[in-house]
Description:
Shape: globular
CATH class of the largest domain: Alpha Beta
Largest sheet: 8 strands, mixed
Strand order of the largest sheet: 1-8-7-3-4-5-6-2
Helix content: 40-55%
Number of strands: 17
Number of helices: 25
CATH topology of the largest domain: TIM Barrel
Number of domains: 2
CATH superfamily of the largest domain: Phosphoenolpyruvate-binding domains
Amino acid sequence: MTRVRGESVAPGIAVGQVYLRGFAAESTGRRIAADEVETELNRLREALQKSRAQVEEIKQKQSDSLGEAELRIFDAHLAYLGDAMFVTEIETQVLQERLSVREAVQLVFAKYDRIFQLVESDLLRRRASDLRDVATRLLRNLDAETVRGAATPVGPYILAARKLTTADMFNLDNEKVEGIVAEEGGMSSHAAILARSMGIPTVTGIRDLPRLLRDGDCVVLDASAGELVTVPDDRALAEATAAAQRWKASKAEAQAPADVTRHQTRDGTPVQLQGSCGSAGEADLVRTFGMEGIGVYRTELQFLAEKSRPGEDSLVHCYKQVLEAQQGRHVSFRLLDVAAATLEPGRSNQERNPAMGQRGVRGLLANQDVLRMQLRAILRASVGVAGVAILVPFVTSLAEFQRVKAAMLEERVALKKARIPCAADMAMAPIIEVPAAAMSIGALLNESDFAVIAIDDLQAHLLGADRDNAAVREYHEMVHPAVFELLARMAKDAERREKSLVLFGESAADPVRMPFYLGVGYRTFSIAPVRLRSVLKVLGRYTIEECRRIAARILEAPRTLDVQKVLVNLETE
C-alpha cells in the first residue's frame, strides 16, 4: 500500500477502479503523403462536428445541475471549436507541412499554450485551460477512429489523467466518474470549478501516474486530504469504502432545503458556520447542509467564464438566483477580485506580480465602470431581501474602503432618482488580507459593519510565501507565532468595538487550529460546505473555557516549534 500526496482541488473520498486517459504517445512529426491530405482534412471536419455535438449534448444534460455561469464554460468551448483562425491554422499544417491532423492539432495547441502561459494574466491562463480542453476533446475523437481497444470502463471509475480537463470529466457518461486524479491542473481552472460544483473528489499534482497506476487497479482517492492510496489493504479498503458511502450520503441527503441548523460548542456557546462558494452548485450545498448563509460569495466566475464582460442585467439575474436559493439566509457578495489584465483585457503593460499589483479594490477603483456596475447589480438584486452585504477585497487603507462605500451610496441615490427598485440599506465590510489592514483593523471597523479575515491570504502575505508554490509551501503552512498573535489582536480590537469578525479560507476550517480561533473570540466562520462535518466534530469536542486555555498556551509559545508541540498534543489528547 502506497500513499501519494497531491493538491486537493475538490474535497471528498472515492474508491474504485482507475482508468488512465491522456497518456498517449507524444507527437512524432511524421509527414503524410499528398494523397492523404484530403482524408486527414475530412477527419478534422468530422472530429470538429462530433466535438461540437458532444459539448452541446453535455450542456443540455447538465442544464438542471449546473448554474448559468458554469454552463457558459461550454459556450467558450463551442466558440473555440468554431473559431476560424484556430481551425485554419490546423488545416494549414496539414496542407502545407503535410502533418497528420492529430499532429497538427497538437502543434497548433502547443503554440497557443506557450503564448498564454507566458502572460501574467489569470484570464488568459483560464482561456489556455479552455483551449486545452477543446484540443483534448478533438484528440480523443480523432483517436476514437483509430484506437478501438481502449474502451471506457463499464460502471463507476476513478479517472487518472495527465491534465485536469473537462474533456475527460464529461464523456456523456460523466455520472460514472467517481473521482479524478491528475498530474497537472490548478484550483482556478474551469475544470476545477466544475469538479467542485458537481462534488467530484479531485486531486492534482501527483506526477508519473502511468508508473503508479494501471487500468483496472483499485485505488482510494481521499481528495479532502489530497491523497491517493494505491494497492490498499483490506482494512484500508473497507474503511475508505464506508467513508465514501458517508460522503455520497452527505451530498444526497436533504434534497429539499434543510432548515438552518444552530451550531454550538460542547458547552452550548453559539457559533455561526456560513458557506464560502463561487458558483450555484456550491451555493446549493450551503442550503442543503443547513449552514447559516453565505459568508463569502466569490463573484469572479461570471467575468472569467466568458470572453466578453457580462452586462449589469446578467449580474442582477445571477445575484437574484443566489439570494432566492438561500431563502432568507445571510449572503455576502465579494466584489470582483482579479488581476488588472482581467479588468482591462487590452492592457499592454502586464504586471510582473499580479498578486501584489492592481487587484481587488485597487483594480476596481481604477476601473470605476466595473465597480459601479457590480454595486448597482447587488443593490438591484437585493430589493426586499434582508441580510445582504458587500465585501471589499484586498483593502490596504481606510481611504480605499471609504471610496467604495461612497460609490455605493452614490449609485443607490442614482437608482432611486431613476425610479429603479434597489435595496434601502446595505451592509459593507472590508476583507482583511494585507498585514497593513490587519494592523489598522480598528479604524476599518469604525467605518464598517463587520470585517472578514481572509486567513490564507493574510498568512501568505505575512510570511511572504505563496500557498500555490510547492517550493515554499512549508513556509505558508508554518504555524508561525506572529500569525496567531495577529489573529488574537484583531479579535480583541473587534470585541472592544462590538463588531463581529468572519474568519474565511481553507485554514478557517482547520480542525487543529479551530480551538485557538474559538479561544481568542472568533464566533463566525465562512468555510467550504464540504468541510462542515469536520468542523462540527471539533465544536462538539471542546468547551469555550478549554479553547481559551489552549489559545493562551499557543500565544505563550515563543517559537514555531513550540506552537507545533501544543497543536500536536491537542491531536493526541
